[in-house]
Amino acid sequence: MARRRWRKKESLTAGTDIMEILNLTPMMDVFTVLVVFLLITAVFTSITIMDLSVPTSAGGPDSNRPNFAIEVIVRKAGLEIANGRTVEATIPKKDDKYDLKKLSEMLVQLKAQYPEKEEATVLMEPKVEYDHLIQVMDTVRGASVRPEGSQEVENTVLFPKISIGDAP
User: Fold this and answer.
1) What's the per-residue H, E or C state across the chain?
2) What percentage of residues in the chain have a pLDDT greater than 90?
3) Which pLDDT score is estimated for 147?
4) Mean pLDDT throughout 146-151?
5) Alpha carbon of 166 to those of 7, 17, 22, 89: distances in Å?
6) Nearest to 125 by CA among 86, 165, 92
7) Burial degree of 144 (CB within 10 A; 0-12, 13-18, 19+)
8) How far apart are CA 122 and CA 133, in angstroms?
9) What pTM was estimated for this model as a whole?
10) CB pairs under 8 A, 24+ apart, for 133-142?
11) What pLDDT score was predicted for residue 29?
12) 100-113 helix and 130-141 helix, angle to the nearest 10 degrees
């Protein structure tokens, strides 16, 4: 009886080749479609890279640099504008959202006072959402300004060189 079972098994696999059992064609088809799909979607993907710098540690005073440093501090309660030493202005949240319009107006005034200044530092408290940081950085980088006597809105570059860091 045991001999019959063995012969039955032997007769099932006797004439078959291992290559007939393992068919790789469907898997190759899937990989071909996957490669074509990835190549097509890679063309439409664009990644924006922003040039950022980390604030350097405070060294000795540099006589070539002005003492005024623009710092925008993103806190849970609102925004603060500092000059590097003291807080100059506080912008509280409006309806649980940051008042980016008011921030933009204040930064335009600062740019008018310091037209040669291109650097600004954005400092953020822990637990502040990343999206808020990006919105503040966009506001610091540029603003939409309507010149007096004109109906058109111009995009003005404010402080394009942004450094980021942790709020004190």
Assistant:
1) CHHHHHHHHHHHHCCCCHHHHCCCHHHHHHHHHHHHHHHHHHHHCCCCCCCEECCCCCCCCCCCCCCCCCEEEECCCEEEEECCCCEEEEEECECCECCHHHHHHHHHHHHHHCCCCCEEEEEECCCCCHHHHHHHHHHHHEEEECCCCCCCCEEEECCCEEEEEECC
2) 25
3) 73
4) 75
5) 77, 67, 58, 19
6) 165
7) exposed
8) 8
9) 0.60
10) 133/74, 133/164, 135/98, 135/100, 136/72, 136/74, 136/79, 136/98, 136/100, 136/103, 137/50, 137/162, 137/164, 139/100, 139/103, 139/104, 139/107, 140/72, 140/103, 140/107
11) 94
12) 40
Residue type, 12: L
111 and 136 Cβ atoms separated by less than 8 Å: no
Handedness of CA 38, 40, 43, 48 (dihedral sign): negative
Token pair belonging to 99: 């008042």
Contact 72, 123 (CB under 8 A): yes
Find the length of the chain.
Answer: 168
| CB atoms near residue 132 (< 10 Å) | 16
| Residue matched to tokens 């005073």 | 61
Task: Return the amino acid letter for 141.
Answer: R
